[in-house]
Amino acid sequence: MGAITLSRRGFLKVAGLSAVGVGALGYTTFRSLDPVEAEELRSAPAELKYTADVMCPAECGIMVKVENGIASAVYGNPYVPYNAATICAKGASGLQMVYNPNRIKYPMIRVGERGEGKFKRVSWDEAIAYIADRLTAIKRDYGPESVIMDAGDVTDRDTYWRLAFAYGTPNATEHGSICDTPRRHGPKLMFGGKRVEPDIMRPLLLRQPDGTLKNDYSYRTKLIIYAGWNPFTATRINYESRGTVEAKLAGAKLVVIDPAFSNTAAKADKWIPIRPGTDPDLFAAILRYILENDDPDDPSRRYIDWSFQDASVGWTEFASAFRSWWRKTDPINGLSYFTPEWAAQRTGIAAEQIVELAHEYGITKPAALIWGMHGTGHHYNGYIPSIIGTALNVITGNFDAPGGVVDTEITKSDKGGKATGKDFLKREVTRTVDGKTVTGTQEELHMDRFGDWVAAWDDVVGDYPRRMLEGVTLRQGPFRGRTYPVKAYILRTGNSVITGSATWKWQEALTAKDDQGAYKVDLVAYIDTPFLESGMYADVILPEASYLERVSLSDVYPSHPMIWLRDAVIDKQFESRTPFEIMIALAKALVERGDPDIKPEDFWEKYAQEADFWTEALAGAPGRPNVGRPLPYPNLPEGFKLIGTPDSLEAGRVEIDPENKTIRGEPVTVEWLREHHGVAVWPMSYHRFPGGILKTSSKKIEFIWDWTETVEGEEKRFGQYASYNKLIEASGNVPPPIAALGWQKYPKTFYWFETKWNFHTNPEYASYRDRYPFQLTSGRIHHAMSGTQMVDWLGRFMVEDTWLPINDATTYDEINIGPDGPTPTGRKLTIAPNTWALGVIQMNAADARGLGFKTGDLIELETPLGYKARGKVNAVETIHPGVLRVAFGAGGRFSPGLGKNFYFKDVTPNHNELIDPEALSPVMGQPAFADMLVKVTRV
Amino acid sequence: MLVANNPDVLAGLDTDASRRKFLSRFASATFAGLVAPAVLLTEFERKGGPAPAAAAAPADIVPLPDLPDAIAGQDLILRMMVDLRRALEKPIEQRRWAMIIDLRKCTGCVGCTIACVTENKLPPGIAYRPVLTETSGTYPNVSRRFVPRPCMQCDQPPCVPVCPVNATWKRPDGIVAIDYDKCIGCRYCITACPYSARSFDSGYFYSDFEGGDPQPYETVAAHEYNTDRIRRRDAAPVGKARKCHFCIHRVERGELPACIVSCMGRAGYFGDANDSTSLVSELLGQPNVMRLKEELGTEPKVYYLV
After folding, report:
1. CATH of B7-305, one of 3.60.10.10, 3.40.50.720, 3.30.70.20, 1.10.10.1100
2. What's the pTM value of the predicted model, to 2 decimals?
3. Structure ipTM
């Protein structure tokens, strides 16, 4: 650490400051280096250090150049096959995040009202005491379940979850349920998985016939269909950039189905514009076509590979439920459900084109049908295309086939293990319900799974505001009938005010007061590196060490098991602390206050240092079975679960446990990763099911989700919805979101319902067609994620048609995040016109002409619910008529921590000011971000 | 008011406005140029420039990544790094650095642009390698192409003869170099470049627009042309012409240019065109090789696959 201390001093000298002076105001005058200082800095050696990115959830393996203790450049790690030395613009620009002048530098406590952004700097002791005092009182007065730990958008959440679970709340979550849960639903129901991706991650480490392991760079895919998925701009699955274009050069055809001409569409052989929210209709038409026209005896119509039935259960029931709709007539167009003509009416795609697409997908093998966040994840009924898409990939023989699709959730390395603290959830707790004492487990106090959202595998962040305002009512399990309030909201690396459903609803919930004038939610804590909008509503703010300053693990979606280390490659900046340190500090403070549930032996006595915690989290890696072809480890028993380092498994330095079918090599540790370029890679194989990777109750692909079988003389319930239906049967309480669909329970197999705020598909909204003629959809910009927009480098370049340097000349009084929060610096700055990218409203050029708008005009969008947002028009040919696209999180940014974007908050639209906070998709509670209608007027 | 953003500073920036301007001046020629076939080049070197920097000593060559063997062929990055090593063993005048960009694989992510900015510690307003975007057509028949535009390292560079002080010249290995200490900042070269690949360093720092404090990465030396320069307001390269140099400081250590190694679409290739066994030589033999503004006779060393 000596070198780093030196370098810091060097840096401070450059800045013209003394170490004491840094804190004083935080703002200093720049001066140039003198030659001696320059020489001192220059002579320092540069090092390349391996770590994991987290500028976005792709979390690529990176190498950071560190000179004199300063991170000076970011490169892709060539040893990580997921990104194979590549890095996107956002990853490369991480330096401006880590060293951002608007970073939170010190702990702070609120001095104004929530939302005013007035804070004062405090010591860590004061800040920790502030939180611990309130958590202690809340546990005493209401119970620990009144605390929500929202570990936000960044995946190394394990320390925070451990603390929360040990404290006694089951309500610890992350951002999954405001991400794309409907999109993950089909794979979850049918595979126990989550993310279906095309088999285009290269290189793939494959066992060779001669026993060696070699990298395969060849592509087998013949057709890729991306529906509502834009990997070139989202860059979320890193390898889908190079993989898609390389597969295409190797002969694959690329079809992109999207209302907007995305960058991915720009590379496609065919762009099929579709109306937002009609992917279920297109997918259903494809499945019907394939079922009606499949002919095993005709090579030109042999769509279905019936061998899938050997490894699956319930196809007959699924197909029958699907077919039952064919006999019905759609009230909106008078046509039979799922025919090409019916789908054409809804999607806006010609019936002939739908037939062509269905045939092409059915006949081309291997092929990959992929549905995305915006196409499915952000719609009220997004489960349906996810379920149909999953079924299509299975019946056409493409699931886990070479060149087909891989469910990366069940093939990636296991991580977390006991470190995450889920064992605490099994603790027995006692509560009073209707005057009676009831005993159950901590888990059974969960506000979603035992409340309104029984099948929500990821907690329902989008519904937190309502519970903050109205309180929680448990409807299932032993504690049903119990109510409790939400008294604390601890938000770590998330920005729910902007991203977690309607912004105004979050503002209302976080500022609501009770009869005594106290805030309903007693404690709002914000833990992060950047200062985002949600921080404006916090009572206490803790500066978290950035991703270059802490240890943890990547959480990614590759085609086969691999994991890499996030390592502290530079010293912690200012007074920030790592999540591990924050966990220990809070645990100690709670114990000091007499907390009965937190034990020293579960925290500081157990983990001497940060690396120990993450080594425990690695204990189960890779945790996947030795299955598939080619067999990953032919030297080891087939079907057994693999645990241990790649080198120990390869060399056979293992213990084999035949009873538990486990192979245990030498454990993967933080130290082992540091000695191996930061990464562990285990081999790829195909055809890894059944009995292998599937996480379903029957270990088969399940087309049915609640059924009973007699096993060894006992009746046993199977299927992914079974346990939830058992709860509902026991309580007699139907969860309100599914009751609204007319369901009594979660369905046994295929289901169908319409999306919200869409007059093309749902007759309920037909009357809005004339007054609110535009569908509003969201888009992703890799530059403009909620938490990275302060990065200057990313603000200078256009992205697609939603992020455009079309600012007016703007002069503003600079506000920076100082020691006491947002503080005017006294500088007046000017941004020259057309030099800074703004989130804009993408509109079809013909629509714009019809309304008399041209690019750059300021317009207002208004929803039928009366909500409004303003932004500049970008009139282009690259979007479906009748559709407006606004980038998610790219406007109306009212935190000064957002840098230049803050000064354009009044001319950039916040998409989430417009959404319907009641439109939470009924099974998982995901906000229907992309279901809204608007009218437009000139400002 | 300390320093304001001034339009001059940002004129070279790859904003949409400047892009439009650039395209209106050059677009037709730019994209027309794409259809002219490439020809093999004759060597052109401007005599009288400073002596070339010596090749890095073998001890300075970075180790090759120790990747698993490929089933067939070789990892592209590894292969290009091996190519570099072969080239670096030759005398500098026998090397001919060339870059190839496969436009079919460019996904328009601008990762290369930012990787270059961080590698070379470029100030606000300067991007050595923007990605030009051209969208055409009418809904639903639209097309868009992305064209990364580094310095072309022309064999007949129009920027070189206009320099009144011989501060820019063509090195024996083909790189068009700038001697920041000699450059007087007259900007003739900037005007002369038909590709708009040169920019003027007006001396701004990110801290001028944000926070006021120097950002730490701005205080670290850039290694352009194998020198270690910490950028200061009162010293070169401030006030000088700047442009892409194929990351020659990396190349001479056996590393690929930052844009090539970072590329999300694996669309970039780099190597010695004088080595018939190199990957770039192999690719240059394909029929779909194009260069920008071929008709000007500048003989660029940046090739595009279309």
Report:
1. 3.30.70.20
2. 0.93
3. 0.93
